Amino acid sequence: MKKLLPLTLIAGTVLCFAGCSSVPEQKPARPRLTFGVPHGKVKYAPVKPDGLELKFFGRNEFQAGRPASLTFALANNGVKRVSIPEWLSHEPDNIGLFVQPAQPGAFEPDERKWVQLTFDFKKPMMHYPITLLPGNQALVSKNLDFVEKMMIPPGQERLYFVRAELTLESLSLASKTMLIRVTSNVRR
Q1: Of 49, 63, 72, 145, which sees the most CB atoms within 10 A?
Q2: 186: Cβ–Cβ under 8 A, 6 or more apart, which residues?
Q3: Where are the alpha helices (H) located in the chain, listed in sequence order?
Q4: What distances in angstroms separate CA 178 from CA 8, 63, 91, 167, 181, one per listed residue?
Q5: pTM assigned to the model
Q6: How far is CA 137 from its chain centroid?
């Protein structure tokens, strides 16, 4: 019996350590932290555009073959704060641009000839709310890639009508039509 006790202790110790492992315990993966709401996951209630205006802000003359962009301001000219629940985190994605060449002598665009410029939306498309207090504005710049790709002979220019519209489902708002001038970057 005295010889069995040490053997039993040794066997128990071996079995105990045999069940132990040196592999660390795997922790469950943490959920990835993201800001905003993924596009298409929520249906937003309409926002009343009372006091809101989408207006052009900046210069409207560019040189062909050089980078160009237009800046727009979504301004709250009203007396109440306005909350927009679905503002896209990549700011330029909030505005769509429509253009058409201005015919010589034309002072107004032809409503049937608008062409929407297409842009790749930054992925993932995430929404977050913004609130515009009275007198505040959100500035958004949009690149005009077609101007950079243009070639215009020296001494000539091209005129284009441009209009911006919000791409949001909850808020429909468009800017006034503006005229941009694209000149040659080559000097005579």
Answers
A1: 72
A2: 152, 153, 154
A3: 4-18, 145-149
A4: 94, 17, 21, 19, 10
A5: 0.74
A6: 16
Torsion of CA 119, 122, 127, 131, to 10 degrees: -70
Which residues are within 8 A (CB) of 71 and not within 5 positions of it... i.e. 6 or more apart? Answer: 56, 57, 58, 139, 140, 141, 142
Q: How far is Cα 73 from Cα 169, in angstroms, rounded to an integer?
A: 18
Cα 92 to Cα 119, 120, 141, 159, distances in angstroms = 9, 10, 6, 23
Q: Are 89 and 127 in contact (CB under 8 A)?
A: yes
Q: Are 109 and 181 in contact (CB under 8 A)?
A: no
